Amino acid sequence: MIIPVDALEPDTLYSLAEAFVLREGTDYGEQEVELDVKVQQVLEKLKSGDAVVVYSELHESVDIKRKEDIQPSDVESEDNDGY
User: Fold this and answer.
1) How far apart (Å, rounded) are the C-alpha atoms in residues 53 and 5?
2) Can you tell me the distance from the alpha carbon of 64 to that of 79, in angstroms, rounded to the nearest whole number?
3) How far is residue 77's CA from residue 19's CA, in Å, rounded to a whole number?
4) What's this model's pTM, rounded to 2 decimal places?
5) Is the pLDDT of residue 27 over 80?
6) Which long-range CB contacts under 8 A does 33-40 form with residues at least 24 apart?
7) Is 76 left (phi over 0), alpha (psi -120 to 50) or beta?
């Protein structure tokens, strides 16, 4: 299920973006990029709609995905087990 970013408190959204950056371990090439800069880049993608926050009831987890990587199961409620 996609969670609208405006439905989340700013501190919560920041924490989700920070956890995503730390978990992903994104390589930005030869130049080192500060954690806060990476988090701000993710927040910008979320606010522009290029990325979305996805909650999985099945796994009881939250993730951030690029819009083009969204699956139909990410959009629909998972309480129907896909039936």
Assistant:
1) 7
2) 20
3) 24
4) 0.76
5) no
6) 39/14
7) beta
